[in-house]
Amino acid sequence: MDKNIKKEGKTFFPTNKNYTKNSVTLQEIKQLNFWNFMSNIGAELDKKKSSKYGKLFKYNNYKFWVRFDYNTSNYIYTNLTTTGDNGTLIDFIQNHIINEKNLGKVKKYISQNYHLF
Asked: For residues 108 and 56, which has the higher predicted lDDT (pLDDT)?
């Protein structure tokens, strides 16, 4: 999957699809490169505790383990500081960026901040 991701700028969507307003699916958001996303929001990568299986990030006084799940083709995070806080990029945006359980606002956040349209 990563070979289809643009690495420059803030675009993390596969480059082989033309995106139009509201065309991004929730599954496509789940498949965004979470590691690049974390770097772009200013999360600090802990290189010593990261591996090829996952990466440890520090963000807003929390520690997050982010890994790629080959069974679902989604990136998954686990908050190592707070029990019960885990999921996909969608869950992360809802819990730590917009602080609201609203899928429409997640899509809006992605589209506004990652230059899709």
From this structure: 56
